[in-house]
Amino acid sequence: MGCTGSCGGNSTKDVSKHPCFSPHGHGKSGRIHLPVAPGCNIACGYCVRKFDCANESRPGVTSRVITPEQALWRVEQALASDIGPYLQVIGIAGPGEPLANPATYTTLELIQEHHPHLIRCISSNGLLLPERLSDLLRCGVSHVTVTLNTLDPAVGAQIYRYVRWQGRKLTGEMGAQILLEQQLLGIELAAQAGMTVKVNTVVIPGLNDKHLEELAWEVRARGASILNLMPLINQGIFADVQPPTPEEMHTYRRQAEAILPQLSHCRQCRADAIGII
């Protein structure tokens, strides 16, 4: 299912109003995440999804999964609340992979119809981005975040337990290679289409932390405009791995900012987050 209307949507909306893409929006603009996308097509080793969680603040969790109609109601309630004057952005960031869930496109279509002034954004693993890019454009999506953790399929094989691609469940380097190819192609095509593209990279000590500058150069060449280096949340198969320290993260960001602007105020939000950040 795809959205109706002409391509291009709100791709020209001011990036400075998006608190997840620009420091200029930090502390001034509000956003609401709509948890309409529970299913996922890859298994990240650091991801533990929960659909009935009220007390954890991290990606992949929500108090509950909602329908597109409930999402529209939630947006309208937010617009009528104290945060309404500050609300600039609706995002779909899970708790699974937005592009693998039909409800994502229905939700975007409803927002486009009823509240076209709001910036629409998606956070994705990128596997389906080349395939579904035209649908996102028709839904007026102007900002996309792709989580890309490595350029090396051998490293990717240690991060991703499997990748579901065209009806097959792929493991090891084969799955990681297909994921990487689609991520890089999706970033390039989205940037060429006029979207603002941010890349999220989870820094995993001893695994991908020595190649962050190489990754920054590559995604910049593909058209990404900002890089968000995020510390590992040690859970899943990485439960025993010590996350990078704040000092180490500062060093990584300082080295990468010579290549791409860095986002340093990311809070690694829940799939149902709302507020000013």
Please tell me about this protein's structure.
The chain is of the alpha/beta class and 277 residues long. The protein has a single domain, classed as TIM Barrel (Alpha-Beta Barrel), CATH 3.20.20. It is 31% helix and 19% strand. Strands 9-8-5-4-3-1-10 form a seven-stranded mixed sheet. The protein has a three-stranded antiparallel sheet with strand order 2-6-7. Helix 4 (153-159) crosses helix 5 (172-192). The longest helix is centred in the middle third of the chain and has 21 residues, at 172-192. The protein is globular and about 45 Å long. Residues 5-13 have low confidence and may be disordered.
Order of helices and strands: EEHEHEHEHEEHEHEHE
What portion of residues belong to β-strands?
A: 15-25%
> In total, how many domains does the architecture comprise?
1
Q: Output the strand order for the largest sheet.
A: 9-8-5-4-3-1-10
Largest sheet geometry: 7 strands, mixed
Structural class assignment: alpha/beta
Compact overview of the structure:
The chain is an alpha/beta fold and 277 residues long. It has helices at 68-79, 102-114, 129-138, 153-159, 172-192, 212-222, 246-256, and strands at 30-33, 42-44, 87-92, 119-124, 141-147, 160-165, 168-170, 196-203, 226-231, 274-276. Helix 1 (68-79) runs parallel beside helix 2 (102-114) and helix 3 (129-138) runs parallel beside helix 5.
